Amino acid sequence: xxxxxxxxxxxxxxxxxxxxxxxxxxxxxxxxxxxxxxxxxxxxxxxxxxxxxxxxxxxxxxxxxxxxxxxxxxxxxxxxxxxxxxxxxxxxxxxxxxxxxxxxxxxxxxx
Length: 111
What we know:
The protein is mainly alpha-helical. It has helices spanning 3-17, 38-49, 69-83; strands at residues 29-32, 97-100. One of its GO terms (cellular component) is plasmodesma.
């Protein structure tokens, strides 16, 4: 077996064992179900913002507008989801989150 092939299998094994995210061409975001209640959305924002920087969704931040709970939740949830390695579990949010493949960026709010 060649050294390059052994190196490839070693790196692949390490990624599987240690849950190292593997880069893919497909970009994904985490957002809230449109049917989520205001309480669920606020809870998702609170949880995510306890773990990641949510200054952009505060007044004056580049993601403050559109100023809706759903948009703010999508930003916070995506930021948390990415900080946790894009795992499905990191987008669960009590079964109110789901992973999308279309960019939810709006105006100056680039995800």
